[in-house]
Specification:
7-stranded parallel sheet; 7-stranded mixed sheet; 17% helix; binds uridine-diphosphate-N-acetylglucosamine; binds calcium ion; alpha/beta; 457 residues
């Protein structure tokens, strides 16, 4: 009769005071992703069909990092974790199946673990994710009965000395059958050391009804690592970094210095990618086989083709084809599209431009708001003068054009196919196809001028 649908409820109303931050805790980033997004991704991968988030403290900032598909319910006053579920009563009134309750500050939970917890809860009222830890202080303790099921969860502040000695803790992740959940929540009171409505008291309520509560103990306690402070935020980053790097190495990516390589969870790499030290790959970047990134390189929102090399450079919200060579010391700013076999750098900046196959922009140039055809060669120190102080203008450089070193290209401007600009020219008029444009003062030599001056002294 009961459906197998699972809804995730993510508790994220808390202030997170120990972060000492103007931002709510769950928007702080772990490997460049707001931690609540990592929690939501795990719930989605575990098969949750609907995601509800309980927001409170600085809710606008929390909502701003959530996808539209995530529903938010506001908890006006934080009266405890049971109250945080109660405020979702209306939102869940037509839901059946199971409710997976998670905390927004636990970014390391694996989807497999959540799936297992849901399985443990099948045909039961409640299941709890637990962990065995060396130092249980601060956590709720798991009190097991003779049969191995959970008799109670006792909060640290309410625990007796013998309960304090228990090393199995409540991670704060639960699965509940939705049927009768809200009737049971109504039985929870706030008669405890903190005067809060504890969700953990659901164990007692279930017991009183003769329902056994099962626990699933984590094999790796670090999965339940919660972020309450900046130190724990950094630790979460390190754990996730290691986990992601090992996953890519298993898939055939070489990582020379894993502790100096940061790959966000939303990025994709193909086999035979090689990553040199101090490299960051973030914001949904993708890298195809055979490409070498680093050292000292940062790509975010970048799509990199096969067999590219990006050395000591930054690529930001841009894409490139195969066999491109970037750097060293180059900056590819947003909206750049490079074809195949393109060279950019050393020491070049490119912005909002398209560069065709086989074109080269080496040595100290700035290319902005431009379209370059195929096999264009840009001489050292060339600048597209795209901004007149008021507006940006476009430069078009057609196939096989050869731009001499130190050319100023004053946009708007078109350089025709196969044309050449003389080194040191300031080009402000269009150049037709297959022509030479010369725009510099003719040279004057004054024979013996220096010698005469010297002798006059
Ligand atoms: C809770 C558990 C404890 C467990 C620990 C694991 C209870 C009573 N205790 O304790 O057994 O070991 O988590 O970390 O549940 N929240 C709301 N609204 C509220 C209260 C809390 O959204 O009214 C959110 C918080 O933002 C936080 C989470 O729920 O993300 C946990 O709340 P918190 O008060 O930190 O519980 P703990 O004392 O850590
Ligand atoms: Ca907590």
């Amino acid at each position: 009769m009961s459906s197998n649908t699972v809804t995730a409820l993510i508790l994220a109303a808390g202030a997170g005071t120990r972060m000492k931050s103007d931002k709510p805790k769950v928007v702080h980033r772990v490997l460049d992703v707001p931690m609540i997004q990592l929690v939501i991704a795990a719930a989605e991968e575990a098969g949750c069909e609907r995601i509800l988030t309980i927001v409170g403290h600085k809710q606008e900032q929390v909502r701003s990092v959530l996808a539209d598909s995530v529903e938010c319910v506001h908890q006006p006053e934080q009266k405890g974790t049971a109250d945080a579920v109660v405020v979702a009563t209306d939102a869940l009134k037509d839901s059946t199946g199971y409710l997976l309750v998670m905390c927004g500050d636990m970014p390391l939970l694996r989807p497999e673990t959540l799936r297992q917890l849901i399985d443990v809860c099948r045909n039961r009222s409640m299941a709890v994710l637990t962990a065995q830890v060396d130092n249980p202080s601060g956590y709720g303790r798991i009190v097991r009965d003779g049969t191995g099921s959970i008799a109670a969860i006792v909060e640290d502040k309410d625990a007796s000395p013998s309960e304090l000695a228990i090393n199995e803790i409540n991670t704060g992740i639960y699965c509940f059958a939705l049927e009768e959940l809200f009737e049971r929540l109504a039985k929870i009171d706030s008669n405890n050391a903190q005067g809060e409505y504890y969700l953990t008291d659901m164990v007692k309520v279930c017991h009183a009804e003769g329902e056994s509560v099962m626990g699933l103990q984590l094999a790796e306690a670090e999965e339940a690592h919660g972020v309450n402070s900046r130190v724990q935020l950094a630790q979460a980053g390190q754990i996730l970094q290691k986990r992601i790097n090992e996953r890519w190495m298993e898939k055939g990516v070489s990582i020379v210095a894993p502790e100096m390589t940061w790959i966000s969870p939303d990025c994709e790499l193909e086999h035979d990618v090689e990553i040199l030290p101090n490299t960051t790959i973030a914001k949904g970047s993708t890298v195809k086989r055979g490409s070498i990134l680093g050292p000292n390189t940062r790509i975010y929102g970048a799509n990199i083709g096969e067999d590219c090399s990006i050395e000591e450079s930054i690529v930001h919200d841009s894409c490139m084809g195969d066999r491109c060579t970037i750097g060293p010391y180059s900056y590819i700013r947003p909206e750049v599209e490079l074809g195949n076999d393109v060279r950019v750098g050393p020491s070049v900046e490119v912005k909002k431009s398209k560069v065709g196959d086989g074109s080269k922009v080496p040595h100290l140039s700035y290319i902005g708001d431009a379209t370059l055809g195929e096999k264009v060669n840009i001489g050292a120190g060339t600048i597209t003068c795209n901004y007149d102080g008021e507006k940006k203008s476009h430069t078009t450089i057609e196939d096989a054009a050869f731009i001499g070193s130190d050319t100023m290209l004053v946009a708007p401007l078109t350089i025709g196919k196969g044309s050449v600009t003389a080194a040191g020219s300031t080009i402000s008029n269009d150049v037709p196809d297959d022509s030479l444009a010369l725009a510099r003062a003719p040279q004057v030599n004054k024979d013996g001028w220096v010698k005469k001056k010297r002798e006059a002294k």
